[in-house]
Each structure stands twice: as structure tokens, then as C-alpha cells.
Design a protein that fits this description.
There is one protein chain. Helices cover 39% and strands 18% of the residues. It is α/β, with parallel strands linked by helices and 285 residues long. The protein has one domain (13-281): TIM Barrel (Alpha-Beta Barrel). Helix 1 (26-39) packs parallel to helix 10 and helix 9 (212-219) packs parallel to helix 10. The longest helix has 18 residues, at 246-263. The mean pLDDT is 93.
């Protein structure tokens, strides 16, 4: 039977966004995968870029302070990328732990790179949702796709969905601030997206500091939840502060699984367990 990943999954599909929180070190990536698995995540996700294609040329020579010393911005971006050998080690480890993997590709060359590694499905970052050439290349792979919709208008979202098609598509509500303010999360839009795109799987990608708002997304029937995961929020890196550690992720998953059991159906039911209580508390008529 062919695996469906996030498609028609009976439970919320949890994606631990590793992104660049590995700081260019495979050992960190493997540890993050291990932490994501122990927390109960279904998948981990990386970012793949061709730095000289996806990075604006006017910032290439900007100085950047890093744990490896001062370097140019383009040198830093290239330092953060994994090669095929390193990705094969990562994929092998994911397979060993039985956790899904994916990546957001920021340029067409990166899609070609990931196709050579037989990526199971694609993620499109909020920043790339308007890159129509990239979307068309991903569409040609005929693989499932998840898109994030941060900093995007409805017109931009509609255009992306038109290219990718609504079938086998996950659409994640998102605020792209790092970290996002609670008053700007606008979680009720999740229910609106479900009405606009009934054929797609609607979810949530969160960049807020806390946990409760992500659990609220599950209450609103988000079927995919993505949060950045980190080994330590105090680690060096631009995304660490908007990420959560494995214990926090485990709490989100625990609470979401309880919610899934608790939601029930939109109709009144008198359960069998209530009848004994009824006999004790109501007079016999």
C-alpha cells in the first residue's frame, strides 16, 4: 500500500521544521531528528537552497559574524547547506527511525537536487509562494506539496493553488514574523481556508514562542501542524528563538491527541456511561 504521508491522515500530521537549526552540522541534524521522533512527530523538514541563486546578489558581500568567524553573507549561506552525501546520511537515519522527511526548495536547482534523492513530498516556504516558475517545476514532479501562506494575499494564494492544483495539496495558515505576536496569529482563518479549499488539507505553521496557540489550531481542525524544533533556544541562529525544544513539542502533540479524542461530532449524544448517573440523579417518571 502506497504511503500517503499527510494526505487523508486520520490524525493531525506533525512536522518538525529543522530548517537551518542544525547550523550546518550533520551531527546536529541527526540529534534534531532523534528529538523530533521522541516527541512524537510524524516528519522532519529541512531547507534546500542554491545560495548563489536564491540569495540577492547585493547582500553577498555583507559581513556576517558566525560561530566559525567573520565571513561574507554568501559564504555563510553556503556553509549552511548539506551536500548529497550528507543528505543520504540524514535520509538513512530518518528511515531507521521510521520518521518521514521533506524539504522546502527555494529554487529550481534545489528541486533537481532533491529529485535525485527521491524526496517523498515537497514544502513551499511562504517566501517562495510567489515564485511561479518554482511552483511549476515542483508541479512537474507529480508529488504531494505543502505550501505555507505567511505574508501572502488571497490573490497570491489562489494563484499558487491554481498552478499546483488543490488535490494532494496541504495549505498551512502562517504568520511569517519570527517570533510572531499572538495578536497577529489570526487562527480563525484556518476555518476560512477549509471552506475556500475543501479539496486540500488545511493546517498551521507556527512561529510564535508559546505552545497553547498551536494546540488551538488543532481545535480549529488543522490537519497538519508545523513548528520549528531546536536543541536549545539559546543556540546561535536566526530561527532558534521562534523554535521549540523537544519537550515543548511533546506537550503540543500530547494535548492535540487528547483534543482529537475529545472533539466528537456536532450533535448531542447521551452516552451509555451517563445512564447509570441518570438513574441516580433523576426521579423515575
Amino acid at each position: 500500500m502506497k504511503k500517503k504521508y499527510f494526505i487523508n491522515n486520520p490524525k493531525v500530521y506533525f512536522i518538525a521544521e529543522i530548517g537551518i537549526n542544525h547550523n550546518g552540522e550533520v551531527k546536529n541534524a541527526l540529534k534534531l531528528i532523534e528529538e523530533a521522533k521522541s516527541a512524537g512527530c510524524d516528519a522532519v523538514k529541512f531547507q534546500k537552497k542554491s545560495p548563489k541563486i536564491s540569495t540577492p546578489k547585493h547582500v553577498w558581500d555583507n559581513p556576517k559574524d558566525t560561530p566559525w568567524g567573520k565571513m561574507t553573507y554568501i559564504e555563510y549561506k553556503e556553509r549552511m547547506e548539506f551536500n548529497k552525501k550528507q543528505y543520504r546520511e540524514i535520509i538513512k537515519f530518518c528511515n531507521k527511525l521510521k520518521i518521514d522527511w521533506s524539504a522546502s526548495c527555494w529554487d529550481i536547482k534545489s528541486v533537481d537536487f532533491m529529485e535525485s534523492l527521491r524526496i517523498p513530498y515537497y514544502k513551499v516556504a511562504s517566501a517562495s509562494i510567489t515564485d511561479l516558475a518554482l511552483l511549476k517545476r515542483i508541479k512537474k514532479t507529480k508529488k504531494p506539496v505543502i505550501i505555507s501562506t505567511g505574508m501572502s494575499t488571497m490573490g497570491q494564494i489562489n494563484k499558487a493553488v491554481k498552478i499546483l492544483g488543490s488535490k494532494n495539496l496541504g495549505i498551512l495558515h502562517c504568520n511569517s514574523s519570527y517570533p510572531a505576536k499572538y495578536e497577529e496569529l489570526n487562527l480563525r482563518f484556518i476555518t476560512k481556508l477549509k471552506k475556500i479549499f475543501p479539496k486540500s488539507i488545511i493546517g498551521y505553521s507556527g512561529h510564535e514562542k508559546g505552545l497553547s496557540s498551536t494546540v488551538a489550531a488543532a481545535v480549529l481542525d488543522a490537519k497538519i501542524i508545523e513548528r520549528h524544533i531546536t536543541l536549545d533556544k539559546a543556540m546561535w541562529g536566526t530561527d532558534q528563538l521562534a523554535s521549540i525544544e523537544s519537550m515543548g513539542y511533546a506537550r503540543i502533540i500530547r494535548d492535540t491527541r487528547i483534543i482529537e479524542k475529545s472533539l466528537g461530532e456536532p450533535k448531542k449524544v447521551v452516552f451509555k456511561s451517563e445512564y447509570e448517573v441518570m438513574k441516580k440523579l433523576r426521579p423515575i417518571s
